[in-house]
Amino acid sequence: MMTRRRMPRAAASPHASTPRSRARRIGEILDALFPMPAIPLDHGDPFQLLVAVLLSAQTTDRAVNLVTPALFDRAPTPAAMAALPVATILDLIRTIGLAPTKAKHLKAAAGLLVERHGGVVPADADALEALPGVGHKTASVVLAQAFGIPAFPVDTHIHRLAARWRLSDGSNVRATERDLKALFPEDEWNRRHLQIIYFGRTHCPARGHDVEACPICSWAASRA
Q: Which domains does the chain have, with CATH numbers?
């Protein structure tokens, strides 16, 4: 269960002038606000997390959590998912974005998990990214949250906030991932990824944001 604490607005600090010092202070604030960030996608095991993350592309976590109970009831394992017709999978996930493509990817990915990995989700980035519909971000989330392997998946919230907080130049998500990994200690990556997502949703919207009232942007954001 995620616990949130109210955080007073951070005052400007002379020690917040470098990306590393900003990252350190940001980490302190995130730990105060979200000390134990929960994975927002409901799942019971690494396979179900993989499915949920794959479904979450261009779709809200809430929408995914509404369809996965019925989907996992019918197909809780890779073998069961691979045995379902694509049309059946599509019926179960029809309300989420890009459902037809995702239904095909789910069946194909499940089949490859059975064929190549004995029905077990591999704790390996290359093996995960070789599955249909599984990109670098999805693989990173599974590695971090299912297996505890340090990773820093970058979604739209993280990419946006890293640029706003002057931790990366915002040129592309791979550069943002590289920069954040360099700024935060490796043993923080998995929770920082979730904390920044939650912060973006609750404190730092893309539009209509009150920078001066924000506990991080009030001192970390560019004034340009």
A: 19-36+152-220 (1.10.1670.10), 46-147 (1.10.340.30)
Q: Are 25 and 16 in contact (CB under 8 A)?
A: yes
**Helix-helix angle 173-183:156-164, to 10 degrees:** 60
**What is the rounded CA–CA span in Å between residue 34 and residue 188?**
13
Report the alpha-carbon distance of residue 193 to residue 40 in Å, rounded.
12
Q: What is the pLDDT of residues 81-128, one digit of tens each?
A: 999 999 999 999 999 999 999 999 999 999 999 999 999 999 999 999
Distance (Å, rounded) from C-alpha 185 to C-alpha 98?
36
Task: Return the active site residues.
Answer: 137, 155
CA separation for the pair 223, 208 (Å, rounded)? 16
d(CA 218, CA 169): 19
Q: Dihedral, CA atoms, 123, 129, 135, 136, nearest 10 degrees?
A: 60
Nearest to 149 by CA among 111, 193, 180: 193
Is 87 within 8 Å of 106 (Cβ atoms)?
no
Q: Distance (Å, rounded) from C-alpha 40 to C-alpha 53?
A: 10
pTM exceeds 0.85 for this model? yes
8 A C-beta contact, residue 55 and residue 93 = yes
